[in-house]
Write a structure and sequence with these properties.
Blueprint: E1 7-10, H1 14-25, E2 30-34, H2 42-45, E3 50-51, H3 60-71, H4 77-97, E4 103-105, E5 108-109, E6 122-123, H5 129-141, E7 147-151, E8 156-159, E9 166-170
Parallel strand pairs: 1-2, 2-7
Antiparallel strand pairs: 3-6, 4-5, 8-9
Helix pairs in contact: 1-5, 3-4
The structure holds flavin-adenine dinucleotide.
The site of flavin-adenine dinucleotide has 23 residues, from α1, β2 and α2.
């Protein structure tokens, strides 16, 4: 692991890249381990877009109600509530990072409405939203001294015997 890096992040999809960006913004170094290449993640292939209550007449409560209805009993209500509440803030963060979501005008986004959504609340970049987000994040992180990319496969987790907490990972020829 890169000297001084004390955080290991497994995966370089939205989850891993946003996590390493968040640590870096706090001045914390991380190593992002990913299998295969950066373009073979579900995140890269996600097309439709990201939902967040944005319009004045919409709300995170309505977003949550729509999601739970669509989930038909399969949703964890606490998780849905958390993400629906956080969504506008996270979308604002992606905008600030430079994700070029489609717009109708300088100050209006071209939001779409699909599935069970009762309001237009889906931000997208044409039909390659995931690709655009990954590209934006990678552009930020590739020259970031706080971030090291490691193209390796994680074969197992190293856990502390007493607490069961994960304290490291096993790679093909080394442990971190
Ligand atoms: C075709 C498609 C369309 C989609 N459209 C949408 C959409 O419109 N809107 C939406 O919200 N969601 C959509 N999704 C779902 C969304 O893409 C995923 O929920 C999201 O990308 C998951 O992100 P992630 O970071 O958790 O995982 P991923 O993007 O899958 O990244 C996983 C990472 O983990 C790494 N990894 C896995 N195993 C190992 C290992 N053993 N060792 C090292 N690294 C490993 C991989 O290399 C990869 O970098 C879509 C998914 C697909 C496949």
């Amino acid at each position: 692991m890169e000297s001084g890096s004390n955080i290991i992040i497994v995966g370089a999809g939205f989850g891993g890249l946003m996590c390493s960006k968040t640590f870096s913004d706090l001045g914390v170094k991380s190593t992002v381990i990913y299998d295969g290449d950066l373009e073979h993640t579900s995140s890269f292939y996600a097309q439709g877009g990201i939902a967040g209550a944005w319009l004045a007449e919409d709300s995170s409560v309505k977003h949550m109600e729509d999601t739970i209805l669509a989930g038909d009993g399969l949703c964890d209500t606490n998780v849905v509530q958390y993400f629906c509440k956080k969504a506008p803030e996270l979308i604002r963060r992606l905008i600030k990072l430079g994700v070029p979501f489609d717009k109708l005008s300088d100050d209006e986004y071209r939001l779409t409405k699909e599935g069970a959504h009762s309001f237009s609340r889906i931000f997208h970049v044409k039909d390659y939203t995931g690709h655009a987000i990954i590209q934006t994040l990678v552009n930020h992180l590739k020259n970031d001294d706080n971030v090291t990319f490691l193209n390796e496969s994680v074969k197992g987790l190293i856990q502390c015997e007493s607490s069961n907490k994960v304290v490291g990972v096993c790679l093909t020829n080394q442990e971190l």
